Each structure stands twice: as structure tokens, then as C-alpha cells.
Amino acid sequence: MDNYQNMVKNMHEYKQAIILRSDLKMSTGKKVAQGCHAAVTAVEYARKYTPSTVAAWGKEGQKKIALKVQSEEELLNIYQDAKNMELPCSLIQDAGLTQLEPGTKTAVAIGPAKSEKIDKITNSLKLL
């Protein structure tokens, strides 16, 4: 890696991963809303328990990545892995007012946290 690549890599030491289920037939707007619910909830948790991480992430530009899983089981495994690593995370269940049954688990957000920690959980997932 040359100096420029190292500089760019180090510019984003922190990130947030937003993971959505691809097996649900959610509209694009519904996916965005569910991902936003997850992202905001995880940031609120992080702001309470790891405020210096949230501040550093903010200074870097609040990097986010949107990923997908194929099932509820996979989503729950990702969430549990994040909890086991003591990362700020959230699991979203839909209220059931529009497209989904009440309680449907739709999204998880992990972070903001160190990118390398999040990558240990999400590196095998595909981009949304």
C-alpha cells in the first residue's frame, strides 16, 4: 500500500454497518425507513455508552455501509455477534402498520465502532 492508500484507509477508522433482510418483499422506501430506524437507534445507544467513538466517527464523516442477509436467522446471528463483542447495535422489529406483519425483524445496525471490529462480523456479507 502506498502512502495515499494508507492515508485514505486511516481516514475512516470508524463506521456503522446497516444490515437489512433481503428475503422480505419490502419496497425501497420501507428498506430505507427500516435501515434508518436501526442506524439512529444504534447511534443513540453509542452516544450514551461510547460518546468518544461517536465524536470520532462524526469527525470522519459518519461512514456507513449497507449490507444484506438472506434470512431472519442470519440477521439474528449478526445481532448476537455484535452484542457478544459489546458493540453498539440495534435490532428493529416492524410495527406492522404497512407492508409487514407486526414484530417482523427487518434490520440491524452495528456501530459506530472501529471498522476492524465491525468487519469481523460483516466481512462475508454482500452490499445491499
What's the CATH H-level homologous superfamily? Bit1
The level 1 CATH classification is Alpha Beta
Query: What overall form do the CA principal axes indicate?
Result: globular
Overall pLDDT confidence = 94
Q: Pick out the low-confidence regions.
A: none
**Number of E strands:** 5
Biggest sheet architecture: 5 strands, mixed
CATH topology: Bit1
Q: How many structural domains can be distinguished in the coordinates?
A: 1
Distinct helical segment count: 5
Distance between the termini: 28 Å
Briefly characterize the structure.
This protein is an alpha+beta fold and 128 residues long.
What would you note in describing this structure?
The chain has helices at 3-11, 28-49, 51-59, 72-84, 115-122, and strands at 14-21, 64-69, 89-93, 105-114, 126-127. With 128 residues, the chain is an alpha+beta fold. The chain has a single domain (13-121), classed as Bit1 (3-Layer(aba) Sandwich), CATH 3.40.1490.10. The longest helix is centred in the N-terminal third of the chain and has 22 residues, at 28-49. The radius of gyration is 15 Å and the shape is globular.
Overview features:
single chain, Bit1, alpha+beta, 128 residues, five-stranded mixed β-sheet, globular
